[in-house]
Amino acid sequence: MVQDQEVLAAEMERTFIAIKPDGVQRGLISEIVSRFERKGFKLVGIKVVVPSKDFAQKHYHVLMERPFFNGLALVLLFAMVWEGEGVIRYGRKLIGATDPQKSEPGTIRGDLAVVVGRNIIHGSDGPETAKDEINLWFKPQELVSYTNNAEKWIYGDN
Ligand code: IDP
Predict the structure, then answer these.
(1) At 104, which CATH number?
(2) I want to staple 51 with a disulfide (CB 3.0 to 4.6 A). Which of 3, 56, 117, 144 is the partner?
């Protein structure tokens, strides 16, 4: 049984989710954490980061040529790693479309943000990005593995 749980944990995917400075300053941390937690995903890494400008720009390097790049001021981040079946894709659904004007009600951006430049949260957009972003923001020893006792109620017995 314990062994099964270890296998389950090893196979579970992980994603990088960060509450951006606007979300932190607006006091939305607990609201956002709660949405991932209530869904049934597992928090395996968490920290508040005040990165240097150079470091923060590594995160958005693919957007370097975009006109809004300099406005992407990740000066304060509530950084998290969430684990669970389908968490990368479903995490993006919980977050909603990039532009909060187009995010559905019920999503984090749809419910809590108004403009694209202040859309409060980041989530990895695919497996490769998730791996890269987790490695960028977290050291391996900052991530934990543990059995959440609710798992069998979330996933069933198999
Ligand atoms: P995502 O955050 O939904 O993955 P990306 O296209 O990767 O969206 O853009 C990264 C971030 O850049 C967005 O979350 C948003 O904060 C910002 N951004 C994207 N497009 C615009 C824009 O047209 N104006 C201002 N900021 C933008």
Answers:
(1) 3.30.70.141
(2) 56
